[in-house]
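A quick aside before the break. I want you to see a complete sequence-to-structure record at least once, exactly as it would be stored in a machine-readable document. Don't worry about memorizing anything.
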Amino acid sequence: MKKKKVKVKFCPNCGSLNIGISAAGKIPRDICQECGYGGIMLFPRVDISKIKEIRKEIRKRGKLKKIKMPPAKEENLFMLIVKYSVLAFTLASIIFLIWIHFNKA
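That is the input. The structure line, written in C-alpha cells, reads:
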C-alpha cells in the first residue's frame, strides 16, 4: 500500500509546528504559538519529512522580524445598525424609483 504524505503547516520564522488560529477580527489568522509570528496565509504546508531540513535553513538565516498585526477593528452595535439601515434605505429608494419608471401611465 502506498504511504500517504503528511503535510503540515510550519512557522517560516522559527520552524515550529505549533500553529494556532486567532479569530480576533473578521478574518481568521494563523499565529505561531512559539514566536508570535502571524498573519493571513503566511504559513506554508510541507511534507513532514522535510521539516528538519527547513529548521536547519531557518537557523542558518536567523529569525525574521515579528510581524505585528493591526488590532481587529471593533464596531459597536449602534454603528452597525446605522450603517445597514442607511444601506437598506438606499436600496429601497432605488427599487422604488425603478418601479415608478416602469409603471408610468
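Two observations worth writing down. The longest strand covers residues 19-22. The beta strands are 7-9, 19-22, 29-32, 38-39, 45-47. We'll return to this after the break.
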